[in-house]
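hi! just following up on the protien thing from before. the input was this:
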Amino acid sequence: MPYLTSGQAMNGAVELPPEANPLNEQTLYHILSAASSSDQQQISTGSQQLQNWEKQPGYYSSLQSVFIDHSLPWELRYLAIIQLKNGIDKYWRKTASNAITKDEKALIRSRTLQCGINEADRRLGLQNALVIAKIARFEYPHD
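and the predicted 3d structure came back as:
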C-alpha cells in the first residue's frame, strides 16, 4: 500500500511504511492537503496515512492545532476538525484500544471552547461545537 512522505504529498504516492512518515505539523499539513485534493491517488494515500496516525499520541491535538490556525486553507481546517470529531468517537473513552492520553485530552479540552468563540466561519464553528458536545457526553458527570 502506498504512503506519502511530507515532501511528496503533493506530487504523488511513494511506498514507505507508516513509521517512516513521522507525525509532525508540517507533515500533517501536507497529508491533509493530499487527502483533500482532487487527485484520487493523493486522496487515497493521504487518507491511509491519516488512518495510520489515528493511534499515535499527539495526532488529535495536532489536528486541533491545524484547525486553530486561521492562516491555513478552509478545506484543511475543515478536514482537521472532522478527523478530530470522528476520533473522539473512537478513542476518547479510557477503555478504547489506543485511547487518547490524559495529557492530550487535557490539551484538547483546554483549547476547544476558545476555538469555537474565535471561529468566524459558521460551518467550522458547528463542527467545533460537535467536538465539545461529544467530549461532554463522554465525560459528564464522571471526568
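The helical segments are 25-35, 40-53, 59-68, 74-91, 102-117, 122-139.
Residues 1-15 have pLDDT under 50 and may be disordered.
cheers
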